[in-house]
Amino acid sequence: MAMEHDVPAAFVPTIKDVIHRLVSGDYTGLAPEWGTTAAGALAEIVAEIARTEGASLVEIPDTAFMTAVRGAVPYDDGTGWGVDVRLWSAAGPSAYTLVLDIDTTGVTPLAHIEQLEIM
Fold this sequence. Notes:
Largest sheet: 5 strands, antiparallel
Strand content: 25-35%
Number of domains: 1
CATH topology: Nuclear Transport Factor 2, Chain: A
Number of strands: 5
CATH architecture: Roll
CATH class: Alpha Beta
Radius of gyration: 14 Å
Distance between the termini: 20 Å
Number of helices: 3
């Protein structure tokens, strides 16, 4: 079983970019494995989160970012990391977690959404 680590500092801008795009409604390319319906599916999930939590998703405050990012696990084959990020709503920490795949095979880390789930 892989051991969890602190998220590498090089991933922070990439993770923040994904969250920014998610909360601002720019879903294009965030979940390519979901196929052509990814943007619509993400919009529905974000709307459902707002309904169930009574508040829209917001960017994670800087003071809470490192505690919101958890479950960073490097892949055994060295191609990337799996990272769990607890989302925030305007009411505070959300019940929802963003599960990211961070590909490290290129020059800069590239993150994709694997799933959004209650954790």
